[in-house]
Write a structure and sequence with these properties.
Layout: H1 5-8, H2 32-42, E1 43-45, H3 46-57, H4 61-66, H5 71-75, H6 80-90, E2 105-107, H7 109-122, E3 127-134, E4 145-155, E5 160-164, H8 170-175, E6 190-192, H9 193-201, E7 210-212, E8 215-216, H10 218-232, H11 244-247, H12 255-269, H13 276-284
Parallel strand pairs: 1-2, 4-7
Antiparallel strand pairs: 3-4, 3-6, 4-5, 7-8
Helix pairs in contact: 2-7, 9-10, 9-12, 10-12
Length: about 300
């Protein structure tokens, strides 16, 4: 087991490895902001297309379908290599060349986070996908934290982890009225799973303030906590994936389960590397946390 957090998060996982498309990373820009723009040139968000497509990008999901594509096939892609294969099939060439919205892969926030994490690891920067909720995606619902995935990277100069949202482009920033730097997100604007669980357990927040499309409450927060621990162990799963403790009905949780979840929340919420080894050992020693060898990713399709 790798005991060094920075070394561990500097190497690619099976999910973030670009594989045969490693050549596309040759001329990636240096700055975080420019890397985010590359992500936005490769991907287009399924919900933005569905609800704001014409106004934001001039196309809708129907335009994608009319082009002979199946959006669900695209936003259910797991691996970076497969995302890049789709990118090249839509329009071969550099990932730096600006492309039309219709030539981008349909994804979700998790795909943006995975892609940026892949870029950063490629150049040796420690990076990881974080699972939590954002306070800035629903301006029409002040105080609500929407399900979200972002990237966290280690700034060697400042010696700290920094949260980055690679999904938020200039149009989204304007539409969502975001007034802070999305390349250095305040930790009260994005809460990782462990922080959400702590707020719930300490009765400092209404658990129904966290969720997505009706999936809220303690069961949802438990799912996000376990999901974040899984991501921290470089299993960057789809948002709807879950097994073991993540999939267990909240009403059937035992006292021991709750005690363990409280421990997991401490590991998830840690903002330094002091509990990295404990986090890795906990994951590897827990049958209901580790991904089963025969697990198959869940396929989810947006309702009409």
């Amino acid at each position: 087991m790798n005991d060094d957090a920075l070394s561990y998060y500097s190497s690619q996982s099976a999910t973030t490895n670009p594989g045969r498309f490693n050549r596309l990373y040759e001329d990636l820009p240096e700055s975080i902001a420019d890397l985010c723009k590359v992500c936005q040139n490769v991907l287009i968000h399924k919900y933005r297309l569905k609800y704001n497509g014409v106004r934001s990008y001039g196309i809708t999901l129907k335009d994608v379908e009319r082009a002979g594509r199946i959006p669900a096939d695209e936003y259910n892609l797991v691996k970076t290599e497969d995302m890049l294969a789709l990118h090249q099939s839509l329009r071969p060439g550099s990932i730096l060349t600006e492309r039309r919205p219709i030539d981008r892969a349909v994804g979700n926030c998790r795909h943006y986070a995975v892609l940026l994490t892949s870029f950063l690891r490629h150049r040796g920067t420690p990076a990881r996908v974080r699972s939590g909720c954002a306070a800035y995606l629903t301006p029409e619902q002040p105080g609500f934290f929407m399900d979200h995935y972002i990237t966290e990277y280690w700034d060697r100069a400042e010696e700290r982890w920094i949260l980055v949202d690679p999904q938020i482009d200039a149009r989204q920033r304007k539409d969502l009225r975001i007034d802070f730097d999305v390349h250095s997100i305040p930790r009260d604007r994005f809460l990782v799973g462990g922080v959400m669980w702590k707020l719930y357990r300490e009765k400092k927040a209404d658990p129904n303030r966290f969720g997505i499309f009706g999936f809220t409450g303690p069961g949802y927060i438990k799912f996000k906590l376990v999901n974040d621990i899984i991501c921290l162990n470089k299993e960057e799963v789809l948002p709807w994936d879950g097994w073991g403790l993540a999939a267990k009905d909240f009403l059937t949780l035992t006292r021991d389960d709750l005690k363990r979840l409280d421990c997991f929340s401490d590991l998830s919420a840690a903002v330094d590397n002091s509990r990295f080894r404990e986090m890795r050992e906990t994951y590897e020693d827990s049958d209901d946390l580790r991904r089963p060898s025969d697990y198959r990713h869940v396929r989810w399709v947006m309702p009409e």
